[in-house]
Amino acid sequence: MSDKPVLKIKSKDGDITIVAKNNGEVSIKPINLKFIMANLWWEKEPEVETFFNVLELTIKNVMKDVYPHHKLVMDYTYTANDRLQDASKIDMEIDYLKADDVEVEVEGDNIVLMGNDERGFFKKLTSRRRKLVENVHREL
User: Fold this and answer.
1) Which of 65, 90, 94, 106 is the most exposed place for a label (fewest CB within 10 A)?
2) Helix axes of 33-43 and 47-66: crossing angle, nearest 10 degrees
3) 124 pLDDT above the threshold of 70
4) Is residue 17 part of a domain?
């Protein structure tokens, strides 16, 4: 059995489940995307940035349950098929996760958010120029 903590990300029917395991201890926390996105839309808040914040804090909390730590370092990359406010597809990949000085093994490190593509013909045609690739480094 590995001494390295493991983080697993699963999704099903609009929910994301974050699971952390370490030496027989398990912590599971769900994120209900439909509920969160509906509230953000209603409050006219930035959906994607807030989703990333919720995901980061959920990962920190689930890891803290099984592996107490002071600092969580997380690097991820997201790619959007247009500017964030117009994008219909956003891919997120966790590149690196470290709790204090211990690297965390990540399973299911890709998250894909897809929505209705309501962009017009010319906006879709020219979106290649506005495609967004962003590397994010967080210390929580």
Assistant:
1) 65
2) 140
3) no
4) yes
* Phi, psi of 124, deg, nearest 5: -65, -40
What is the SS3 assignment for 56? helix
Which domain does 19 fall in, by range?
Answer: 6-139
Please check whether residue 1 lies inside any domain of the structure.
Answer: no
- Can you tell me whether residue 108 is helix, strand or coil? coil
What pLDDT digit, counting tens, does each position of 19-48 carry?
Answer: 999 988 999 999 988 888 787 777 777 777
Nearest alpha carbon to residue 97 among 77, 78, 65, 75? 75
Tell me how many domains the chain contains: 1
Q: Are 67 and 20 in contact (CB under 8 A)?
A: yes
Threshold 0.70, pTM exceeds: yes
Q: Would 99 be classed as within a structural domain? A: yes
